[in-house]
Amino acid sequence: MSPGGQKLRERARYGMDAPGVLYGCFAMGLLCFVLQTIFPTLTIEGRDWPIGIVFVLGQALCFPSGMCMLLYGKYGKFRHRDRLLSLIEWKGNERVLDVGTGLGLLLIGAAKKLTSGRAVGIDIWSQKDLSGNFASETLNNAILEGVDKKITIKSEDARALSFANDAFDVILSNLCLHNIPNREGRDRACSEIARVLKKTGVALISDFQKTEEYTEIFLKEGLFVEKLGPYWKNTFLGLTVLKVTKRSA
Ligand SMILES: C[S@@+](CC[C@H](N)C(=O)[O-])C[C@H]1O[C@@H](n2cnc3c(N)ncnc32)[C@H](O)[C@@H]1O
User: Which residue of 179, 182, 204 sits with most ligand 1 atoms within 8 Å of its CB, as the best mutation to test the pocket?
Assistant: First the structure.
């Protein structure tokens, strides 16, 4: 049983990222297929126009995009998690923060590397960014993965972190910051990450877009940034990782 009294699932579930976009890709692809079948050509004033080609192009764009997102959600995200975690030289006593933890992919992965250390996951639990995204589900996942004693889950916005300056040895964030709708908010989140990172710490910020923006802010805050990737191999989504530190490597 979970702390909420409901029956625990048998396996942890990490959800589908941007489910609306994922289903939209397949729905649009299907619509293009139907339209191409019904209207391979359009006759205007006795002349045939091959508009079917537009629908073929629509399918060529939508189906592969949907497929990549599906494969990332099913397989790629776990490989990317392992890749990110392997970039840290774990001692086991770290204080870890996962910004936009969602269902705890990185939070739980990091907690498994800890002995005396502890990991905190913060999120605002947006349903459009991740399917089944609830704090209670993240806790269930942690219980199922045997790390619930090593983690804390907090409802908190990346733009206004409640933690003290220099609080974390390791900060992780995957596919979170681009969801913040404006530049000012994303800049604020990067500044907050810079603020709570220890002088000896390392932050790994992973995203498929806007990483140039994040780099700009980290540099402005006086941090050092190493850009890794974009990684496509095995993950099906081109993810760039920024390795951010307060002193040069
Ligand atoms: C695509 S999901 C990725 C979740 C997780 N990092 C992973 O890799 O599986 C993006 C997450 O960022 C969270 N998020 C979006 N905006 C946020 C904000 N301003 N502060 C904290 N979390 C946020 C969403 O609720 C969602 O859980």
Answer: 179
CATH code at position 230: 3.40.50.150
Query: Do 102 and 42 fall within a single domain?
Result: no
pLDDT per residue over 182-198, tens digit each? 999 999 999 999 999 99
Q: How many CB atoms lie within 10 A of CB 9?
A: 13
Ligand 1: distance of its center to the CA of 176 in Å? 4
Indicate if 100 and 178 belong to the same structural domain. Answer: yes
Q: Do residues 153 and 205 both lie within one domain?
A: yes
Q: Which domain holds residue 67?
A: 19-77
Residues 110 and 227: their CA atoms lie apart, in Å, by: 21
C-alpha 171 to ligand 1 mean position (Å) = 14
**Cβ of residue 126 lying under 6 Å from some atom of ligand 1:** yes
When divided into structural domains, the chain yields a total of 2
Residue 209 shares a structural domain with residue 104? yes
Q: Is 126 left (phi over 0), alpha (psi -120 to 50) or beta?
A: beta
Do 123 and 44 fall within a single domain? no
- Of 130, 154, 184, the residue with max ligand 1 atoms within 8 A of its CB, to mutate for a pocket test, comes to 130
Examine residue 209 and state whether it is found in any structural domain, yes or no.
Answer: yes
pLDDT digits (tens, 9 = 90+) for 108-147: 999 999 999 999 999 999 999 999 999 999 999 999 999 9
Closest CA to 106 of 66, 145, 164: 145
State whether the beta carbon of 131 lies less than 6 angstroms from ligand 1: no
Atom of ligand 1 nearest to the CA of 157: 20
Partners of 44 in the β-ladder:
47
